[in-house]
Please model this.
Amino acid sequence: MKLLNNLSKELSGSVLVIGFEDNSSLVKSLKENKKTTIVYTLNSNGNTILKKQNKKKKLNGEKDINIKKLSKELKKQKQSFDYIICNFETILPFFRGFIKNSILTANKKVYLYNDISTYNVDEIVYRYKRYGCKIKKEKEKNIHLITIESEKIKLSKLKLFIYRIRDLFYDFFEFIGNILIG
Model:
């Protein structure tokens, strides 16, 4: 958490925080930071992991947003963010779609806060690097903070479609492998 608290003091502009409660130290320090203009929270209402039937979350208590269609919903509102800070456990069920949404929505950087045992960090890095993002990994005990620079990235619909299909097959074969092994 030290990495995130230090990070919250350096940020300026609009910030979207996903997977942290409103009373967490990160959200409090972001709201106290005078350089941050807008802080939106998209949290899991007390649960650390989203459930499949509970896909819609509140954006600052005003509107339900489907986390799968985050960029489309924010585009309707003409809203984009300079930074996105995300607890990886929260978006794990929606990770395939979240990659595209986070790149389209964040103007500067995306921060993924990840427990080492949750998911393969190298797979996260690979999935973001193919878009041409610069990635930096920091480690604190058994926690990773992955910084993804999403500035100056050009995306085509064909490229997004191909990556989406590739990720779908990768996740499918990983699921089959887990069933056969376990």
Summary: Confidence is low (pLDDT under 50) at residues 44-63. The first strand starts at residue 13 and ends at 18.
